[in-house]
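User
Here is a favour to ask of a fellow structure person. I am asking you to supply a protein in sequence and structure-token form. Please set it down just below, with no commentary around it:

Assistant
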Amino acid sequence: MPDFSKIYTSNVLQYARSFLTLSLILTLICSPFKDLFPDFHIIKLKENLRELSFLNYYLWFSNMKIPYYFTLLILILVITGIYPRFLSLFHWWATYSTFYTMFIIEGGDQISVIIVLLLIPICLIDPRKLGWITVNNSIVPKNKYLIFFSYSVFVVIQIQLGMLYLNAGVAKLLVSEWIDGTAVYYWFNNNIFGAPDYIKFLIGPLFTNSITVTLINWGVIGLEIMLFVGLFLKQKLKYVLFTLAFIFHFLIFLIHGLGTFWISMTGCLILYCFDPTITMKQNILKIRKVFSSYKKTLLLSEKT
């Protein structure tokens, strides 16, 4: 077990939380209010209360603007990084309530609810007043049992994310279009979720050529399965996977318009692939170092 107490001297945790938060903020402020919370949907939710519905504060009010602005306030406070141990509880409460109230949701919203919940035990023993700052070891938690519990929860988060990618990759093997290598062609040209015209103009030929479309198709499956394997790889290889996955989700954003999904998955990838015991800047420098070493190796091999 690494010295996991150093996670409280790093800002990696705050970066991950902020990406997950930013995704929901953009969904709330960039989408028409009536599309997210239509009256007929709210009425139906209030008529069909379930097990944890009492926790959903959106259902406490007749005026939906009140919980809407309350949510934005909580999310903005989370991004400021103040008092992670207290705001982590409100963060999940806001994420949970919003997810189970919005009429329009996507996969990034769902994974955020789970990951933000799992982050609560880690944040509860964070002694900092501001999650963005890096502090010396003298004020980190000293209780070894709490640190071990915090580390165990972090491992559970990584397992959850690894299984997410494994399920995404393996599930595609049960679909005939993914097996025959044509699925990405159909998604690329889908009338609703397909690529915009300028993207089709730029890279459209890649999705009409049988060789390239098959490579892209199976490349997606291979990357998702490799991301699961990342659970067992050394840190420098995790950095490589982070870079590939970041580009992959960014391309999904460009082609399919899922911008908030890209942002929320970036937060997840930080938790999954970065070393949480060093700062964000140090992680990025290590990524550069890894690719620099691969570049030097490639140049040496070409010379020989």
